[in-house]
Amino acid sequence: MDYINRYIYAVTKYFSGKQREEIEKELRANIMDMIEQQQGPELFEEKVKQVLLKLGDPENIADGYRGTKRYLIGPNYYDTYILVLKIVIASVFVGISLAVLVENLFISGNQIGQVMENYVSLVFSGVLQAFTWTTVAFFIIERKNRFASHLTQKREWDLSKLPAIPHNKAIISFADAIATIVVTTVVYTIVITIIFSDPELIAAYVQGDNGTVVIPVFHTDVLQGYKFFILTVFMMSILKALLKLYYRKWTVSHAVIHSVLTALVTIITLVILLDSTVWNANFATEIDSLVNWSIDFPLFWKRVKQSIVAVVAIVGFTQIIVALYKAFRYRSA
């Protein structure tokens, strides 16, 4: 039965949800019917091998269930590509909308026309970039797999090419992969929109004698100088999320790529946070002069910044360890 399960997995791994369940049920029934029709004294295992060899490459069977072929993004990933594209675009739209809403809650005096013009411009730019980068990512994945398939097609397909069924703890659920994409896109879209347009919004709002005093957390000019690196962190984080959807399980290659990307994201983030000039040097003293604290606020703020750096480092290190552990502990092949 191991060959049957592996064959069905090889066919259905490109589908999800109810469609996957229906295809698995139908394919299993067809395989069992074909085995029963096999005449001869062969053992059950031999009949299984004969039937699966007769069915041929699982990718061809999967194509048959789809019924259509697409060419820019191949049939193996087209449906997933469309779903991810919709999710990413919707997430970008939500992120930008929230960022603009927050911006205009704290900044008074903006004209409605100016706000709408800025909003439409940001949405158009964000959606265009979401479409472009998502398409490029899936195009690369498709071409990579097409090249690999071209190499393997030079050899006749046989049962040894069936993938092993992954351990349950190594499987990445479809919902988990999609949730990662949504959260990553929304959070980074909000952060990037604010940093690129109004970084002074990231501030402490303290009530003073003459009204509300806005004290920026960061030195805005220095922070905006890191735009390229912040975008790089965003793109690598999205790539990590897309790779979860692509692999759908923790393999050694997936864990290594994930770890490298996580290390780069962590290092770049730490470089930005450890740059003393990126922080507003007068932040703690200005607040301390306006509020009667029972604590040494400048010392407290210093420890807060150190804690942020520590959390970023620990989270990045933990993600790497967990990914590598799952890949090596539960690898099926």
Low-confidence stretches: none
User: What is Rg?
Assistant: 26 Å
Q: Into which percent range does the helicity of residues fall?
A: over 70%
Tell me the overall shape: elongated
Total E-strand runs? 2
Strand content: under 5%
The number of distinct helices, counting runs of at least 4 residues, comes to 12
Mean pLDDT: 81
**Strand ordering within the main sheet:** 1-2
Taking the alpha carbons of the first and last residues, their distance comes to 18 Å
Structural class: mainly alpha
Pfam family, one: HAAS
Keywords: Membrane, Transmembrane, Transmembrane helix
Transmembrane segments: 80-102, 122-141, 170-196, 226-243, 255-274, 308-328
Output the keywords.
mainly alpha, two-stranded antiparallel ribbon, single chain, 333 residues
